[in-house]
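User: quick one, fold this
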Amino acid sequence: MTPRATAWTFAAAMVFMATSAHAQVNVLPRELRDVGVIEHLERPVPGDATFIDEAGHPVRLGQYFDGHRPIVLNLAYSRCPMLCNMVLNAAVRALTETVWSVGNEFDAVVISIDPRETPQIAAERRQHVLEQYHRPSAAHGWHFLTGTADQIHRVADAVGFEFRYDRAQDQYAHPAVTMLLTPDGRVARYLYGIDYRPTDVRVGLLEASQGRSISTVERLILYCYHYDPHTGSYVLLARRIMRLGGVVTALLFGGFLTVMWSRERRKPPAAPGPAAA
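Assistant:
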């Protein structure tokens, strides 16, 4: 088998692993052992974990948790021959189709899982992503970080991201997943695979925002959607839609009656009839 075919097979196996995160596989290739996701919902991500940003400045992960905006978190690495590109491209596509913008309503953080990567490599990858996303606000909201192995594993362990280095291939085996964090840095949701529905991303961000600075329409969207762990996506709840429709109907009917009552009150009193002889 050629190296290219090996890479395709390897990536395909990892994609299958990621999109079936809750499935139990009895026999796994050696490269995929100890690779997957253990969901740690509501667990805090270590804010004191230290990294180097794309400009070469030392940063703490917690400085991106401003208490107001949720975070889209990806663990990837630039030398990845296939899967990391697929995951990041999927995130960019979905975020491009989302009304909210990186740098305005939420931030995005990409942490390299390869401690050999440099800020220069991170800067190049960031530039490529910004050109794809094509929204000016992302220039101050999309961060690419590199760091030491121990700091990388602190974050990976906190979010349940299990990966391993394959020395023979000189590659990292890892799952395909994007994490959504709350504004204070806790895990809110996992989105699996290499093709995210914009609806899942938007509702996931609304959910992760914990109701901070969202409009009435966005609250209604959040009310009508529910995360289904079996499908790994958000689904419309028919009962909530029917209930909401009933409330809207009642409000419209009440408004109609109020208008009619007001008009009736504004009518001049009827003129008295002629007096009897």
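User: anything notable?
Assistant: Residues 238-266 form the longest helix (29 residues).
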